[in-house]
Amino acid sequence: MNAPDRFFLADVQASADQRQLAIHKVGVKGLRYPLALLDADGKVQHTVAQVAMSVGLPPEVKGTHMSRFVEILEQQRAPLNVNRLLRMFEDMLLRLDASSGEIELAFPYFISKAAPVSTVESLLDYDVRMIVAKRAGQAAELTLEVVAPVTSLCPCSKEISEYGAHNQRSHITIIARLRSGMTPDELVRLAEEEASCEVFGLLKRPDEKWVTERAYDNPKFVEDLVRDIALRLMSEPRIAQWTVKSENFESIHNHSAYAEISGDNA
Fold first, then answer.
1. Which of 175, 161, 162 is closest to 229 using CA atoms?
2. CB atoms within 10 A of CB 108
């Protein structure tokens, strides 16, 4: 027998809850989803994001509508940047009748780089996180986070050694709460410019000579890295609040060197 065209299904999650406890975050996390992004050149980049979406739940409501989070992702929309992510977030709050919430997207992001001498092109991957969040009664906040691999060369090693100096790969993490839109490329470039040398996906022999000598001529402690990047972040009007971290994977120790600075821009 065919099912009736219309029948009643009880909406249990929309029923009243007697415990009178508000929930700060309820939603979905650990969801992998294909994502189209706009890069700094306005080109579309495709990646796969780890997604977390949540809203605040009033004390009198039993549950949220979990399926609507995925429905929001399934909507056809233009490739995302931070401003379009904000519009998607506003749509989520409207669909779920919420006054607070959060969307977090974490994904690999690729930038095409030309080697310094041969100019051969290659892609380098960076870890990026975009977060938009809102508390009840407050404006939404946008946060952009990047992790950029760079080279650092030890000034002390250079000074005391008769030849050579030890260097290492470092991970620079920049977390920026934004006043207006920025792209991951801009934060990545800022980190790379303040390192002893940037790293590349593909280098020929003349390029290897260049990056080796560039790092030797530009030695920096882990403290130098975070201080120099902090000065750049402090002068960026599009950033309201920032944190910069550096972890240097030491080549002469079995541990990392680490430094971190945070600040607010007036």
1. 175
2. 11
Identify residue 165 by its one-letter amino acid code: A
CB 120 within 8 A of CB 163: no
**What does the chain come to in residues?**
266
- Cβ distance 53 to 28 under 8 Å? yes
As given in the structure block, the two tokens for residue 108 are: 């690999």
Q: Let me know: does 94 contact 63? Beta carbons within 8 Å.
A: no
Instruction: For CA atoms 212, 215, 216, 217, give the dihedral sign.
Output: positive
Give the pairing of strands 44-57 and 121-134.
unpaired
SS3 (DSSP) at 54: strand
User: Are residues 87 and 49 in contact, defined by beta-carbon separation less than 8 angstroms?
Assistant: no
Per-residue pLDDT of the chain in tens (266 residues, 90 and over written 9): 455 556 666 676 666 778 889 999 999 999 999 999 998 888 999 999 999 999 999 998 888 889 999 999 999 889 998 889 999 999 999 999 999 999 999 999 999 999 999 999 999 999 999 999 999 999 999 999 999 999 999 999 999 999 989 999 999 999 999 999 899 999 999 999 999 999 999 999 999 999 999 999 999 999 999 999 999 999 999 999 999 999 999 999 999 999 999 999 98
With contact defined as beta carbons under 8 Å apart, do 110 and 124 qualify? yes
Question: Are the C-beta atoms of 244 and 174 separated by less than 8 Å?
Answer: yes
